[in-house]
Design goal:
Length: 203
């Protein structure tokens, strides 16, 4: 099912700056992913089955795509639903400079929750890392990260270092380069800054 999901996503090739600060040569557009809940339903239930073993009491996802998935998973698991919103900042000079905040009315309810932190597709994991920081500051505990698809290894490595498991329905290789090591920069390929657009593979 994840092969069908990946193959169905519109893709652009080029030289892109992601929200995380990493560069990549592939941009996947996820805007239409949640248009057909019936089609996505089997994937949601398959991921819910993986998250159930972690005894979560709530699911949280970064807006937009992660929040849509979080709401569907919370319904399947019969637990509470939360979301975070991006704080618009100037382009980061360092990696992982993005911030995501809980709405003020939701922040007090997070305390002592066992959170499943989810996103539709995760590559470097900028928004899930920022959301995990926000949940911890509000007194919640991220006990598992969930996603339909993991691209590359930076997010897996990060959450492994924190002893937080990552549950996914599929994993694929994906090019992510730090700016100083980007081969496209070395070839002077023009860079497209999509930080403030829909962060298709970074939410």
């Amino acid at each position: 099912m994840t092969d069908d999901l990946l193959n169905s996503l519109p893709a652009r090739h080029g030289h892109f700056l992601l929200e995380s600060g990493y560069h990549t040569n592939l941009w996947l557009t996820l805007d239409a992913l949640f248009v057909s809940p019936h089609t996505l339903g089997p994937l949601v239930h398959a991921l819910a089955d993986k998250l159930r073993a972690h005894r979560v009491t709530a699911v949280c996802g970064p807006f937009v795509g992660g929040a849509f998935l979080a709401q569907a998973l919370a319904s399947a698991l019969e637990v509470e639903f939360y979301y975070t919103e991006p704080v618009r900042l100037a382009a980061a000079r360092t990696l992982f400079g993005a911030e995501y905040h809980l709405p003020a009315a939701l922040r007090p309810r997070v305390r002592a929750q066992r959170m499943a932190l989810v996103d539709d597709v995760i590559s470097a994991g900028s928004s899930v890392r920022a959301t995990a920081t926000e949940l911890a500051a509000a007194g919640g505990s991220t006990v598992v990260v969930g996603t339909l698809l993991v691209l590359g290894t930076p997010a897996l490595d990060h959450f492994s270092s924190l002893s937080i498991p990552v549950e996914s329905l599929g994993r694929r290789d994906f090019n992510l380069w730090e700016p100083s090591r980007c081969p496209l920069c070395a070839k002077h390929v023009p860079l497209e800054n999509l930080v403030h657009a829909r962060e298709s593979v970074e939410f």
